[in-house]
Design brief:
Blueprint lengths: L1 H27 L3 E9 L15 E4 L2 E2 L3 E3 L6 E8 L8 H4 L2 H9 L4 E8 L3 E4 L10 H5 L10 H15 L5 E8 L6 H14 L1 E8 L1 H11 L24 H10 L4 H9 L3 E3 L3 H15 L2 E6 L7 E8 L6 E5 L2 E4 L7
Parallel strand pairs: 5-6, 5-8, 8-9, 9-10
Antiparallel strand pairs: 1-11, 1-13, 2-3, 2-12, 4-11, 6-7, 12-14
InterPro entries: vWFA_dom_sf
Protein name: von Willebrand factor type A-like protein
Keywords: Signal
């Protein structure tokens, strides 16, 4: 009896060990999700259904084997980060139209939406709801904030709010802010990592405070200097202009566009606006993007720790353009999250 039991016990232990090893392989393997937006310049619109083999994706230059994930059963979670500090109060008249446009944009998908306002720090926060109309008053009657605009802090706060309320499924941030904000290399590096780890896409709906200021300065007579006396023997020079301040604003506006950079890192879209008409057009683009997104996934062939560069293309479809996040972060096994 003992001889008969021993092979059976060994077989059972071997089977259990194999099952445990398989589970370990499944749970420790790295699966990278890459939400990808597909657009076309064709007047006929986007009328093709794509498969995984239509896409090419490289990880640090190395082609990867792709899968096309089915749409998550979880609803799309959306957080609107609304700047109310700094130069934002001048945009409040435009903000009033965001509510109805957001309702239209989200109308084609199952969603949960929240709103966070911020100035020099995150301020008010609305609970997640499956009805965007609950945010109408917030968009139409925002409270002016202080002189700050802590965009990266607001994004961090939003990612934490996702983790508390919507731990699974698709995540999207609609960032409504000035396009120019201070962000050091290390801060952007950490933001890239957090966006990659949480599979969050950012759409930057951005106004340009410097450009608006420059136009206003050059439109009015305020830059004119008082009479300039060059010599007691000559009449004063009249109608000279001090362009130093507008020129400094122009140079500032030429600096790196941080809002555009954050959107590109996450695979989202930069959507500038200067007036109500621009905003309506950009949010219509946003609505179209939501219905033309694919979720690609792959297991890296070289899962080295650190920042990885991504490139996605559609080589068999020259009339189509694929836009996805440009990087992801792979943590070392002993790295703390």
């Amino acid at each position: 009896m003992r001889r008969l039991l021993l092979p059976g016990v060994l077989l059972l232990l071997a089977t259990a060990a194999a099952a445990q090893q398989a589970d370990t392989l499944r749970t420790t393997s790295t699966l990278v999700l890459v939400p990808t937006r597909v657009t076309t310049t064709s007047s006929a619109g986007l009328n093709v259904t794509l498969r995984a083999e239509d896409f090419t994706l490289t990880d640090n230059g190395v082609p990867q084997k792709l899968r096309l994930e089915e749409a998550s059963r979880e609803p799309l979670a959306v957080i609107v980060l609304l700047q109310t500090g700094g130069a934002a109060p001048k945009q409040f008249a435009n903000y009033a139209g965001i509510s109805s446009l957001l309702e239209y944009a989200l109308g084609s998908v199952r969603y949960r939406v929240s709103l966070i306002t911020f100035d020099s720090k995150p301020e008010d926060r609305w609970p997640f709801s499956n009805d965007a109309t609950n945010l109408r008053d917030a968009f139409q009657k925002p409270k002016p904030g202080d002189g700050g605009a802590a965009v990266l802090d607001a994004i961090d706060y939003g990612l934490d709010w996702f983790g508390d309320q919507h731990p699974r499924g698709r995540r999207l941030i609609l960032l409504v802010s000035d396009e120019h904000f201070r962000a050091g290399d290390e801060a952007l590096r950490q933001m890239t990592r957090r966006l990659a780890e949480t599979n969050t896409t950012i759409y930057s709906l951005s106004f340009n405070a410097q450009r608006a200021y420059l136009i206003d300065e050059l439109k009015h007579s305020s830059p004119e200097n008082p009479p300039l006396f060059m010599s007691p023997d000559h009449p004063p020079l009249l109608h000279t202009f001090n362009l130093d301040r507008p020129l400094r604003q122009a140079l500032s506006a030429m600096q790196s566009n941080a809002a555009e950079g954050v959107a590109a890192l996450s695979g989202g879209t930069y959507m500038p606006f200067t007036n109500r008409k621009d905003l309506e057009l950009q949010l219509t683009t946003f609505a179209n993007d939501l219905s033309n997104r694919y979720i690609l996934s792959f297991q890296p062939t070289n899962p080295t720790a650190g920042l990885h560069s991504l490139q996605v293309s559609l080589p068999q479809h020259p009339d189509l353009q694929a836009t996805a996040r440009t990087a992801y972060w792979h943590a070392a096994p002993d790295e703390k999250h």
